[in-house]
Amino acid sequence: MSSPYRLLTCGLLLVLACGDNGNATTAKPDTDSTSTSTPPVTTTTTGEPTTTGATETPTSTEAATSTTEGSTTGEPAQCAIYSNELECGQNGCEWTQLISYTHGTQGCLGDIRDFCVPKETSGGLTSMWRDDDGDIEVLQFTHIPTDLGPEWSVCDCDGPLACLCTAQPLDCPERMDEFCGTIASENSCTNAATAGNFVCGWFTVSQEGPLDGMCDDPPWQAHCLPGTDLGKKTCEEISLPYVDQGYCQGWTDPVFWRDNDGIIEVTTDCGPKPTGWNLCVADDPTQPEECKCGCKI
């Protein structure tokens, strides 16, 4: 009886052993499914567009474009601040040459001055001036500058004499004595011009002292004076012939006189006429007797 029982027990153990093996087989897919779950790889893949978007190159390009457009379509370029051609051109401006004027004992002197101006300008001929540490600088523009600093002023009749040297018309008759009077040489005097017109003449002047009818005998001097009919060489008027005083026998050149701060001055020239002087004429009781002194010049 005992042996069949043992056989039955062994058979049951074999069945249990086979059932354990089946359980082990069905457990393998769980292990495999865990190892083949590769969604993290997919997550890494989807991160690449995020990295591409982070470069933001379109945003930086738009910013650069808007900056360029602002420099061309915004406020006018401030060009006068650039002192060299490279910076001038890099900032949308144009490097050009202007005429710079000074005025002194040699009259008007012009020089070429490099300057940075906007490419697009408007307006006509304009002259500007500034005081550069005691040195007066006058520039002639072919437009109306709008980008100069506050140290610059528009030339007018109250400006420096060099403003009168420019081609811009300035009607300043009250400044012409000063403009011509500072010039010390005949050539510079006869070539002095404002707005392109000669305005000065070289005259011989004699100072006859106070109004007393007497001719003093100081040496006469050549002076640069504002005048008209400059360059003419023919006499159209006949001066007062003081034949009876013995001064002007045969004298035909016109004589002019003026009262210069209480000093009677006379001058004579054949052709040009000094501005602001009076022509000596016959039988004028209001003119000084010093008119006859012009015949000795």
Write the layout of secondary structure elements.
Elements (H helix, E strand, L loop, with lengths): L1 H34 L3 H16 L2 H17 L11 H6 L2 E12 L2 E12 L7 E7 L2 E7 L11 E2 L21 H6 L4 H5 L2 E2 L2 E2 L1 E8 L13 E8 L26 E6 L2 E6 L4 E2 L3 E2 L18
Antiparallel strand pairs: 1-2, 1-4, 3-4, 3-5, 6-7, 8-9, 8-11, 9-12, 10-11, 10-13
Keywords: Signal
Compact overview of the structure:
This protein is α+β, with helices and mostly antiparallel strands and about 300 residues long.
Query: How many runs of DSSP E, i.e. beta strands?
Result: 13
Average pLDDT for all residues: 77
Helix-strand category: alpha+beta
Question: Spans of 5+ residues with little confidence (pLDDT < 50)?
Answer: 1-73
**What global shape is seen?**
elongated
Count of helix runs: 6
Report the β-strand fraction as a percent range.
25-35%
DSSP helix fraction: 25-40%
Radius of gyration over C-alpha positions, nearest whole angstrom? 50 Å
Order of helices and strands: HHHHEEEEEHHEEEEEEEE
For the largest beta-sheet, the strand count, sense and barrel status come to: 6 strands, antiparallel
Distance between the ends: 180 Å
Q: Could you give the order of strands across the largest sheet?
A: 12-9-8-11-10-13
What does this structure look like?
With 297 residues, the protein is an alpha+beta fold. Helix content is 28%, strand content 26%. The chain contains six helices and 13 strands. It has helices spanning 2-35, 39-54, 57-73, 85-90, 176-181, 186-190; strands at residues 93-104, 107-118, 126-132, 135-141, 153-154, 193-194, 197-198, 200-207, 221-228, 255-260, 263-268, 273-274, 278-279. It has a six-stranded antiparallel β-sheet. It has a five-stranded antiparallel β-sheet with strand order 2-1-4-3-5. It is elongated and about 75 Å long. The termini are far apart. Residues 1-73 have low confidence and may be disordered.
